[in-house]
């Protein structure tokens, strides 16, 4: 047998590499309940929550945070398919098609076993091997006669999002397959990155001394991943398209899903020496129908369209098969494209219909799934080059650890697969010019926490968006700026305290821009646990993000537009300083992003944000030449800095809060959140002393990272001053993955490079290699093997690490030249 050359076609050694037979730690489970001592205060909240949960269940709607039914852990995921805001289809690292998000913002976590690839090998006009390329036995009635259970030890997977490579060693055949999957996730590209498509380029290597005929069949079922959403008007048809000298054949499956028209399209690229055959509309629940397809393929490695078929429904599927002859000791390719075309969407309450962003780049009257597939086939090579141009400088950097190169790109999946929605609103004259030009963009707080653009979490995650698609980051900011001037005086009951209060208070920053199962952008503030008008971090985070986004984009028009809202927000912040010491005061309840961890009076977290936000306001006032505001903010900052130091500094770090509680001196890992933002916006030590920053970071590293988990889990949110796990709150004993990434970037900026990478490596290794949480990084990990809220927004803060690397090198170069 010849030596295989197939592995050399994978262009990089970096990424997440795993064999099909990988077994993860089975003890990891979703978090379900806090400690008994923590539970008592939640009993009234839980009873109020049950009433809301039951009311929505009776209405056949999902609660936006389902604490009773957390998503079960599936240790299966690989790099997902699709661009930004167009719906996504997940892939498992063993080849599954799973975790569909086609209905806007709503996930279905089932695997569709019909959707799969099959290989058929023929020698001398005889079929010698036919195998579904999945390691599972197929359970559907119509697929039981298909040969499943591909041997797990013969499959290998590598993911470097938005690409992945899956290798199959076909047992006893001297044939190897490599499937390269690609999605058009291309930073600063606002057209192709929005497409609902995926590319599958198959390399077929024949290591025999005789030719082999290889057929690859791609099967796809109508409907979606579950039966939750109504599916009707299903039809299948064969299609053939030619454009600019490229021809393709395939199938189109049209249906209406939850009242929205959806077309799946699979196409195979026609070459001079291949044959493409199709078979449409077979019933996956019928023994006879499914067996006929299998025998048709086995018979001659091709498919035959039957003369007549039964009525189509969501249980019917179609196949496309590419057949080619591979000469001895050579490699050939077969190429498929997949599209899911849902141009018009609405949300749960169907108050308004939106057109997805990608549609504006095509003739909307003639745009079909085949148009998108042909576009994919024609542009795949360019996409590969664009992705390489983006990734290669980082991959080639010898100073960066291998795990980080994998983590940085693979964690980026959430920008597309975060329940993302991107719509064209160019005809809405009530919106800002920027939003009309670049569209409205939203993503979920998490796959399980269904709130769009949750602002206190976006504060961390936005480092990805502002560096990769800055116009979308500004679009989100314009939407929040508009929301500050909006109020909704309708009252509702909030769950934590059971009190009734306004839905949205004037001049406050909302928690989120709505639930996609209701009506986002119209009905904002879906979060009902707390009245976030009284939260202490949202306004401060707004001020810091506005400043950071201006620094990164240098868009003066943006700053000119939002400047009035900066003044409204600072006025609101001033009202929340109850003792006049210049610092915002926490109210004795969980009034910030740590929404189950109360703070009282001045606090390390909000105090640090407060000082940093005032510095940001001073810089913005200077840019706006607003001298009155500049003087006001400068006076305020001096007072705030004095109070921050006097009330919280203990000689080593900042106390958790200024209360007399026995937890007041807890070591919080996120206590430098404001400094982090300023530092990554080009500031140094205007307002925070260098020696104190170093002391805080060293204390956190020694206590929250090393003493807690020996550096293998990331940074725990809270440790006691005596070096014990802080269990005052369930959140104090969690490791927040995104906070750990942000902390690491701060360490790197302060020349604690090895400590910074070690801190984050624990999170990455736990999620990807131990717990089986790849491509579903949760909000929180716990030392006892629990996690909370898989598929979460905050881990996108890993892009702050990359910013810190670049900025620290720039500073180092400037210092050496001075």
Automatic annotation (TrEMBL):
Protein's name in the database: Non-lysosomal glucosylceramidase
Root EC class: hydrolase
Domain of life where this protein originates: Eukaryota
GO biological process terms held by the UniProt record: carbohydrate metabolic process; glucosylceramide catabolic process
Domain Glycosyl-hydrolase family 116 N-terminal: 78-383
Stretches assigned to the Glycosyl-hydrolase family 116 catalytic region domain: 439-801
This protein's UniProt keywords: Glycosidase, Hydrolase, Lipid metabolism, Membrane
Lineage of the organism: Eukaryota, Metazoa, Spiralia, Gnathifera, Rotifera
A GO-annotated cellular component: membrane
Gene Ontology terms for molecular function: beta-glucosidase activity; glucosylceramidase activity
Assigned protein family: Belongs to the non-lysosomal glucosylceramidase family.
InterPro entries cross-referenced by the UniProt entry: 6-hairpin_glycosidase_sf, 6hp_glycosidase-like_sf, B_Glucosidase_GBA2-typ, GH116_catalytic, GH116_N, Non-lysos_glucosylceramidase
Signal peptide: none
Annotated catalysed reactions: a beta-D-glucosyl-(1<->1')-N-acylsphing-4-enine + H2O = an N-acylsphing-4-enine + D-glucose
Pfam families found in the cross-reference section: DUF608, Glyco_hydr_116N
Role, per record: Non-lysosomal glucosylceramidase that catalyzes the hydrolysis of glucosylceramide (GlcCer) to free glucose and ceramide.
EC number: 3.2.1.45
